[in-house]
């Protein structure tokens, strides 16, 4: 009897173990696949657009790929980004954001900051326990992931932290090297955990850009999707000043109108809106007004246009071109670029390997080759290069 009981318990333990393994392997992939979708948009790419695309150095200011349990070195059949797809898309530089907190029932209108879905994701992904209940540690884990991917990439991915890194990256690409730069950003400075000195910790980990708020108000700034939607807090003003001094670019994406106005009034260096759209072509509250676009341009910064419904009100790349054309007509071609929000729990009409459809849309809209080069990467690379240099 004891023998059969032991066998039964062993079988139960084996089944439970197999179920646990399956859960922790399959569930993260299922979540990633369900959150980051591609609904292919059919676009005929002309030989002229293909030829131009093959010569571009693309730069994109926002992707959330580090949030997911995905090997970014290997080609994947889920999500929007991995190194092979970036190479195929002619990317020179991709900014990878660290998302550390996301409220339950997240929406564009109003979210409180007292709930979080990323805690569950951190546990399901079997991330280090230090990340389960610390927003700062989540960002540091994301940085470790990018550095690890770079170390394992055989030189095809390198982490960018200085202007000299950008210069070297572009020179190596010009000389025929297959290499993509990755820069670290933060989506909401709640990961400071109320301590401004944690900016130094994040900077040391490689972060060179940061959005002030994400989908909820925090102790730095109000969010466009928060409850109060206030401006910069006293701590937030100190943070902006410290960021400008150290060479960490201020990102206005998701910030409330009041916070955007406060930053633009005090900015002494270029600021960006890394990903989104413009209300003139897509009247969604997270998108910038014309006055805000003008304010970004006055700092010498750049507005990144996204590829998803909330940014351009369509998955059609022609709507991306339409938003870009509006910014160009409003403030000039030097102040607009790409901010895809790939892998940001978004559905897009193409992934990183298919970004030539944007080149085609710009060409079909009458943009010159020189202007397409600026939009697809030149403007972003210029602003990043200037912005990550410590203040002299």
Automatic annotation (TrEMBL):
PROSITE patterns the UniProt entry points to: RENAL_DIPEPTIDASE_2
Molecular function per GO: metallodipeptidase activity
Gene Ontology biological-process entries: proteolysis
Signal peptide: none
Entries under InterPro entries matching the protein: Metal_Hydrolase, Pept_M19
Name of the protein in question: Microsomal dipeptidase-like Zn-dependent dipeptidase
Organism phylogeny: Bacteria, Pseudomonadati, Pseudomonadota, Alphaproteobacteria, Hyphomicrobiales
């Amino acid at each position: 009897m004891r023998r059969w009981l032991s066998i039964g318990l062993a079988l139960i333990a084996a089944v439970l173990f197999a179920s646990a393994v399956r859960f922790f392997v399959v569930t993260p992939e299922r979540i990633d696949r369900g959150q980051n979708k591609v609904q292919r948009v059919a676009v005929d790419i002309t030989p002229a657009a293909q030829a131009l695309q093959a010569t571009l150095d693309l730069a994109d200011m926002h992707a959330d790929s580090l949030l997911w349990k995905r090997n970014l070195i290997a080609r994947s059949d889920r999500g929007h980004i991995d190194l092979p797809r970036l190479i195929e898309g002619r990317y020179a530089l991709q900014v990878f954001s660290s998302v550390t907190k996301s409220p339950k029932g997240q929406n564009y209108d109003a979210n409180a900051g007292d709930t979080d879905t990323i805690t569950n994701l951190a546990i399901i992904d079997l991330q280090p326990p230090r990340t389960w209940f610390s927003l700062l540690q989540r960002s540091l884990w994301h940085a470790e992931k990018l550095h690890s991917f770079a170390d394992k990439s055989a030189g095809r991915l390198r982490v960018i932290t200085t202007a000299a890194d950008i210069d070297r990256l572009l020179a190596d690409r010009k000389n025929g090297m297959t290499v993509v730069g990755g820069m670290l950003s933060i989506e909401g400075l709640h990961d400071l955990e109320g301590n401004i000195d944690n900016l130094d910790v994040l900077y040391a980990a490689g972060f060179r850009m940061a959005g002030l708020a994400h989908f909820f108000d925090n102790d730095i700034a109000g969010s466009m999707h928060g409850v109060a939607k206030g401006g910069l807090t006293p701590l937030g003003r100190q943070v902006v000043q410290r960021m400008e001094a150290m060479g960490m670019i201020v990102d206005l994406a998701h910030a409330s109108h009041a916070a955007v106005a406060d930053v633009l009034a005090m900015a002494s260096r270029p600021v960006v809106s890394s990903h989104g759209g413009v209300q003139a072509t897509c009247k969604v509250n997270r998108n910038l007004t014309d006055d805000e676009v003008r304010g970004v341009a006055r700092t010498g910064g750049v507005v990144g246009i996204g590829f998803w419904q909330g940014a351009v009100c369509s998955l059609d790349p022609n709507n991306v071109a339409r938003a870009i054309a509006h910014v160009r007509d409003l403030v000039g071609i030097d102040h607009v670029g790409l901010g895809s929000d790939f892998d940001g729990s978004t559905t897009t009409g193409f992934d990183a390997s298919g970004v030539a459809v944007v080149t085609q849309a710009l060409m079909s809209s009458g943009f010159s080759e020189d202007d397409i080069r600026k939009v697809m990467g030149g403007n972003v690379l210029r602003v990043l290069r200037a912005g990550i240099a410590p203040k002299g």
